[in-house]
Amino acid sequence: MGCGLRIFDYTPVYEEQLGFVTGASHRLAAGSAALPLAAFVAEPLVLLNKSFATRQQIDAYCASHGIAAKVAVEVNAIGALVEIVRQGTLGTVLPNPISAAYTDLHAVALLPPMPSRYVVYAWRKGAYRTAASKALVDVLTDLVRDLTSGA
């Protein structure tokens, strides 16, 4: 975690991977081959605007590889992004759990893959944690484990 977050304690709930996602009508939807950077950079994308952490991670990934994403549409709502991708021929980058939740969205592996990120439950360092807040973390962790293990 970044240095500005030293005032917090946290418990990781789960790890998620960002990936390239298309709708069913996209030409890459049926393929099983991973998408290299040269092909990714040529794909027109619909992305969240730069105020979103997901977009900042996408931009950092691109910068670390010396490329720039080809942003065709920029939106400020995940629902709009998903609908544009589902109905059209633009791709996007989403956390894998979101793309897996829609049968008409197709994840395409990127080479190299985008870094994973953690979803955490955070609280102010030294703050009292109620039994309910501790139980919530346990329930969330168990739920995510069950969902990701196919149970």
TrEMBL record:
Name used for this protein in its record: DNA-binding transcriptional LysR family regulator
Cellular component per GO, a single term: cytosol
Domain LysR substrate-binding positions: 8-142
Record keywords: DNA-binding
Organism whose genome encodes this protein: Massilia aurea
Gene Ontology biological process terms from the UniProt entry: regulation of DNA-templated transcription
Coiled-coil boundaries: none
Tagged with keyword NAD: no
GO molecular function: DNA binding
